Amino acid sequence: MFPRNPIKFILSRTRQLFVIVFAPVLFPTFMQAAAHARSEPIQHATNTFFVSPMGDDDNRGTKDSPFHTIQKARDTVASRTGLMQKDIYIYLRGGVYLITAPITFTPADSGTNGHTIHYLAYKNERPMVSGGRQITGWTKYDGNIYKASLDRPEKLRQLYVNGQRSSMARGKDFIYSSEIQGVGTFRIEGTEPWALTSGTRFTGFTFSKDNLGQYKNPGDVELTSKAGFGYHIVSLNNIEMLGTKSIAILQEPIGAIAQSIPQYGCAFISNKPELKAVSQFHFQNALELLTTEGEFYFDRHSKTLYYYKRASEDMNTAVVIAPLSEGLMILKGSSTEHRVANVEFRGITFAYSHYSLMNVGGSYGDTTVQSIALYTKYSDAGVNHTIKYLDNTLQRAAVECENSKNIDFVGDIFEHIGAVGLSLGNDSSNSSVIGSVFYDIGSSAINIGDPRNVYIDDGDFPPGVEGVPTNNVVQNNSLRNLAVESLQAPAVSIFYTKDLNLSHNEISVAPYTGISVGWGWTSFTRITKPNSFSQSSAGNKIDYNRISNVMLWMHDGAGIYVLGEQPDSEIVGNYFGNIGGFSQGSAIYLDQGSRFLAITNNFSDDPNGWFFVWGKAAQVYNISSSNNYSSVVRGNEADNLNDSPNFKNARSKPTDLDRKNRTHAGLERRFRKLREEEWGP
After folding, report:
1. Residue 82, Cβ neighbours under 10 Å: how many?
2. In sequence order, which residues have a C-beta less than 8 Å from that of residue 69 and are 6 or more positions away?
3. How far is the C-alpha of 149 from the C-alpha of 301, rounded, in Å?
């Protein structure tokens, strides 16, 4: 059964990290590990600036007279980049840099003439870019429920108390039954900006009064749906009564979009009887549902925040943080010729980014075919493979890069994030994420690529904007407690990318897949013609990662999941531990059109299955596999490969090489202090 409180469930799987926002704890061992990557001396004043939460933007930007905001330092540097003769260093002193909107970087903020602009933590200090605000003035409302004022017009979807994520007030989980029936008709003309075709869909669905009650603010309520590998959230417009039943009237057009492809595990409301039996629902975000400790509700009409305190908490001393900024940083160029370039962020914490769901035509929800590719356009096409994913948009990230190159994140921390942590999206190349920590992330920790990159310059981006991310490095990062709100999100999402080096990372505790590599059902010959194969993925190395405790709740995924062609790519030396602890999963899963991969020297310990191929019709071939070990050799092995005679099963008895590979996977020695037991309290 799906846990009532998934956040509590995930956090119980690992030691909790406690960070008080307004008094950041310094982590010397973490900083020592980050320093191994590169250490730069402080330069003379002409190319060095200082920023401090105690500074003033009217200051000179020196160590003794620092700026107050990162934006001021950015703008000051922009006036000098055309004449850069050496790197520029911007040192951030320790403390919290509060923002109300993302800090933006454009091509004008790039390093030039072959030089880089560095935003660095000063010595061993820990600067934090925070989108959160501390909420004080708590008074008792009823029993263990407390309330405080919050001047905010929009819905609040995340809250943190003493460094621990809280969840929206929610009703009980219930299974699909015959009581759930569509009612009303919503018509789509096909000319709307959010529509690709015309069509009709239900305006709402009926539920029993036991599952859907009458709430004071029905427009704040959300309906969630979980089936297979899909997890969907659709906001309500109203709740109406129909005899003995309640009707959830959906916000539109997101309600129609959520129903547009009602099939497989991606169904919001499935049309497949076998999936209806396992579809799980609950309603959330109403004061009347606030019955469990650790939950909250924000009444945006009265501007009152309610919180059901945990037994261990004292609201007189609790540090309560409400994330208010929708994102923390955006680095975005205007085209493949005009990118943001040559910028480094080192030793910085990015924290408390709010996520309000996708806004489509004034309606809010998250609904997806799979992963973090969200439906934002209505289509009556039946499946979105035939329309080249034109109905998909990436879920928002705390830090977003697009049309960018040479952007480096080294020794940073991403924590308490509402959706995706860091995204290297369309045309983000020659960039790196090294020695960083991702903790308590609402969706994928890291995203690379865009589902619309299936074909380049095919009209789904403005002319000259679209490009496949190339030559990126994601290495020696620690990723823990992931996808705690967007349950369908892989810990690491990779769409289309070339020459990616994703190696020596440690991924632990996630409801779905550990690493998802590739997209492109267009390689599936039953859907599109062979000559339409995407050429947007190649040369990717998924090597020596340590993946454990994933596939905890969702279905049809793996430690490493592959989709679409991957010429000259490899999956080498990875360690898998406890894969599929809650649902069907395997160490490695090759789905539709997966081809041209070398799978060698992987070590699998206690998986539900070692190797899985979706089926013969998936046209999976040109897979070479050797020298793999698995403690459990089961699954369909090579049965569904189209050239299975060339495939070698995993060994069931380890060799000395297997044991060596197991030790070699994960963080390299100089980065192992990033492991929780060594650097966290």
Report:
1. 9
2. 51, 57, 97
3. 11
Among the residue ranges 40-54, 143-157, 394-408, 575-589, the one predicted with the least confidence is: 40-54
Residue 28 CB neighbours (<10 A): 10
Instruction: Please tell me whether residue 34 adopts helix, strand or coil conformation.
Output: helix
Q: List the beta bridge partners of residue 199.
A: 188
Task: Report how far residue 369's alpha carbon sits from residue 263's, in angstroms, rounded to the nearest whole number.
Answer: 9
Phi, psi dihedrals of residue 676, rounded to the nearest 5°: -55, -40
| Distance, CA of 197 to CA of 381 (rounded, Å) | 8
Confidence of residue 610 (pLDDT cuts 50, 70, 90): confident
Give the C-alpha separation, 223 to 246, whole Å. 13
* DSSP states of 197-224: S-EEE-SEEEEETTTS---S-GGG-EEE
Task: Report the C-alpha gap between 390 and 384 in whole angstroms.
Answer: 8
3-class state of residue 414 by DSSP: strand
CB 570 within 8 A of CB 524: no
22: phi then psi, degrees, rounded to nearest 5: -90, 5
Backbone angles phi, psi at 36, to 5 degrees: -60, -30
* Cα–Cα distance for residue pair 254/236, rounded to 1 Å: 10
pTM score > 0.70 for this model?
Answer: yes
CA distance 61 to 66: 4
Question: Which class for 452: exposed (0-12), middle (13-18), buried (19 or more C-beta within 10 A)?
Answer: buried
Q: Say how far apart CA 31 and CA 123 lie, in whole Å.
A: 9
In a 10 Å sphere around its CB, with 0-12 CB exposed, 13-18 middle and 19+ buried, how is residue 193 labelled? exposed
Q: Which amino acid is at 149?
A: S
Task: Mention every residue, 6+ apart, whose C-beta is less than 8 A from residue 524.
Answer: 385, 592, 593, 618, 619
Weakest mean pLDDT among 324-328, 391-395, 401-405, 506-510: 391-395
- Short-list 314, 439, 446, CA closest to 372: 446
- With contact defined as beta carbons under 8 Å apart, do 452 and 413 qualify? no
Q: Are 78 and 111 in contact (CB under 8 A)?
A: no
In terms of C-beta density within 10 A (0-12 exposed, 13-18 middle, 19 or more buried), how is residue 23 classed?
exposed
- At residue 310, the 3 state secondary structure works out as coil
